[in-house]
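sry for the spam today, last one i promise. struct tokens for design, 356 residues
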């Protein structure tokens, strides 16, 4: 039985992103918060009253550490513990076990679990944010340097056009002026993608299919592209054009990375209790673009979201920078991962109204 104070505390703890379990003096589970249910892939109703060795039968160290802490009345802290869940999946956690004293007896024990991989992801996110901030400064400086000569080039082309009598030659000046205008507009869009976002509600799979259609139309050869969609994902609130541009940049990268035998998979899922940009979200959308190409060259992997960083001789090195900027403006994040000979770019977007 939980004490009244403990019951109140557990109600508050349910809002934490750290997994918290409470066991009584007989080592039977009294309570587990939402983060604990998610981390251990269990439900409060199913495991309530169970002992640690029943909750995690394949992780005897977990039960032994809790029993030892309660009997000795000492706090136990362990790092990098491998736990095997009931569904046979494995996780690595940092663990703190704290016995609770009532009078002269230890009557309950609190177990806190932190997903070690989650901590690593948060640190990686902090690094990506630093990269993004540096990228914005770099792009602004680059744009300033490009704008001035562009204006000079355009002006010179206009003056030259007035002096030319040959209509065939003026076609070249018109091209120079047109391309200068196009490049200037591109820089303006790149620098100010979020000046007037047009937030609407739409289905993410409609966007993905539109982008697939664009990329297929651009491709000279057939693409081996598969979908693994979760049809239950709710509509998102975002700037439709900006999400299209971000996904398009990532999908184009995947197409350019594979050969004629390469494959690409578009995957969508939801994920609960995820921290992005120092904010905990109850539910997020996860979009993964997975290809079996060679991946980012190791020497530029750490700076993949920096502007002008590219592994292709014909690349600009701006696609990933722009995509990251667009997604971060929605409170989201893009992650890169190379695993099992496959490359994955993962978009994380909050599913709350307004998306951050």
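last one done:
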């Amino acid at each position: 039985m939980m004490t009244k104070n403990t019951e109140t505390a557990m109600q508050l703890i349910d809002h934490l992103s750290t997994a918290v379990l409470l066991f009584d003096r007989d080592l039977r589970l009294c309570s587990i918060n939402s983060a604990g249910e998610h981390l251990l892939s269990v439900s409060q109703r199913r495991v309530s009253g169970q002992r640690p060795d029943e909750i995690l039968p394949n992780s005897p160290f977990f039960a032994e550490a809790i029993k030892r802490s309660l009997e000795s009345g000492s706090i136990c802290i362990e790092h990098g513990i491998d736990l095997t869940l009931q569904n046979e999946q494995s996780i690595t956690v940092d663990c703190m076990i704290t016995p609770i004293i009532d009078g002269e007896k230890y009557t309950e024990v609190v177990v806190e679990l932190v997903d070690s991989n989650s901590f690593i992801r948060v640190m990686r996110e902090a690094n990506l944010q630093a990269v993004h901030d540096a990228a914005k400064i770099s792009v602004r400086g680059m744009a300033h340097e490009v704008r001035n000569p562009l204006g000079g080039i355009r002006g010179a082309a206009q003056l030259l056009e007035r002096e030319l009598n040959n209509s065939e030659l003026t076609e070249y000046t018109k091209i120079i002026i047109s391309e200068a205008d196009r490049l200037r507009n591109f820089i303006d869009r790149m620098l100010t993608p979020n000046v007037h976002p047009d937030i609407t509600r739409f289905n993410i799979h409609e966007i993905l299919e539109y982008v697939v259609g664009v990329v297929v139309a651009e491709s000279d050869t057939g693409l081996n592209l598969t979908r693994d969609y979760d049809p239950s994902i709710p509509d998102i609130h975002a700037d439709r054009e900006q999400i299209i541009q971000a996904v398009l940049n990532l999908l184009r990268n995947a197409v350019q990375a594979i050969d004629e035998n390469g494959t690409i998979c578009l995957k969508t899922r939801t994920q609960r209790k995820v921290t992005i940009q120092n904010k905990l979200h109850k539910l997020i959308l996860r979009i993964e673009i997975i290809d079996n190409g060679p991946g980012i060259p190791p020497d530029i992997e750490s700076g993949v979201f920096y502007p002008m960083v590219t592994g292709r001789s014909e690349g600009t090195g701006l696609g990933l920078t722009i995509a990251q900027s667009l997604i971060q403006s929605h409170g989201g994040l893009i992650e890169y991962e190379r695993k099992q000979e496959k490359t994955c770019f993962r978009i994380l977007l909050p599913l709350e109204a307004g998306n951050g």
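The chain has two domains: 4-116, 198-356. ok im logging off now
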